[in-house]
Write a structure and sequence with these properties.
Blueprint (H helix, E strand, L loop, with lengths): L2 H25 L8 H23 L9 H25 L2 H8 L2 H12 L6 H20 L9 H27 L2 H25 L8 H26 L4 H6 L3 H17 L2 H4 L4 H18 L7
């Protein structure tokens, strides 16, 4: 294994450590300090500036007119709907629940790839979809009865977030072969910002910034710079040296990081409701999703 491969794996590890920590970090200031809609506006607006600045200096690439419709869809699904559902979901539910549900993303990508790109579904993939799907759905329904900070509506929003992101990945797949990844994400964030403006601008304007503490600004900075900007760049760097399947496999670190973060948060701050977020049912649901995707990843006989 050469040095670039090692660097790629370290980049993926770093990206998913950031994602895993983000669940509880982002939740920590909502809704007391900032409304989820205002948070989405800040995240998208800042990232539009960051990505377009880098694109202006390093990627001189034009997009053909016929491809703009797909870029608009990428902005709607991969930025606008994805972030709105995520922030409203994490605002309502447990970070543990959210991180587990997000591991279903590879399964969602597989389903949309079959429906849209007509990629074949094999026997193992079908079995894996059923196992992972049962685990994710069970967790969503369980959120309405669970102790702690779980929520059925919050879990549903996170699942819709994963679904939007999965559909975005399928739509963006052909664009990735044609354009630099930075070009796609720059347009995606720009269109995403345009889509969310009617829903988020008023909440942003009415945000009480005077009530922000240093901790609030640090959380927002973490979400913008690390969860969005650096984590994306880490993933793009890694894709130059490893396959997408290797990249997606790192998503299973996120529930582990979330479990650890929630445990530390509950211990240090003595938050009993967070301590109750870790339960046998959630661990079982997590294992079902992971087993399901493992079965999907095996090379099987073609069924469909």
């Amino acid at each position: 294994m050469n040095s670039n491969i090692y660097k790629a794996h370290f980049a993926l590890l770093g990206a998913n450590l950031i994602y895993g920590a983000n669940y509880i970090i982002a939740k920590g200031i909502m809704p007391e300090k900032i409304n989820p809609n205002a948070f989405v506006f800040i995240r998208l607006a800042c990232c539009v500036v960051l990505f377009w600045t880098i694109k202006f200096f390093f990627v001189k690439e034009k997009v053909e007119r016929k491809d703009f419709l797909r870029l608009v869809l990428c902005g709607l699904l991969g930025a606008a709907a994805n972030m709105l559902f995520f922030f409203h979901g994490i605002n309502l539910t447990s970070p543990v629940d959210a991180s587990i549900i997000m591991t279903a993303t590879p399964v969602i990508v597989l389903i949309f790839s079959f429906l849209i790109l007509k990629e074949p579904i094999t026997k193992n993939k079908l079995i894996g979809i059923l196992i992972a799907g049962v685990g994710a759905i069970f967790l969503i329904l369980y959120g309405n009865k669970a102790a702690g900070t779980s929520s059925f509506l919050g879990n549903l929003f996170v699942f819709l977030n994963a679904s939007c992101y999965g559909l975005y990945l399928v739509i963006a797949k052909t664009l990735m072969r044609k354009y630099n990844a930075l070009t796609i994400v720059s347009w995606m964030f720009l269109f995403g910002l345009i889509f969310v403006l009617p829903f988020t601008l008023n909440d942003f304007n009415t945000t009480n910034f005077e009530a922000f503490t240093t901790s609030t600004y640090l959380v927002i900075g973490f979400v913008v710079l690390f969860t969005t900007f650096f984590a994306y760049l880490f993933n793009v760097y890694a894709l130059n040296y490893v396959t997408p399947s290797v990249t997606s496999s790192y998503i299973y670190l996120q529930p582990v990081i979330s479990f650890i973060m929630v445990g530390l948060y509950a211990y240090i701050l003595m938050k009993d409701e967070y301590a109750r977020d870790i339960s046998f049912v959630k661990i079982l649901s997590c294992l079902m999703v992971i087993i399901g995707v493992y079965v999907i990843s095996k090379q099987p006989k073609k069924l469909v």
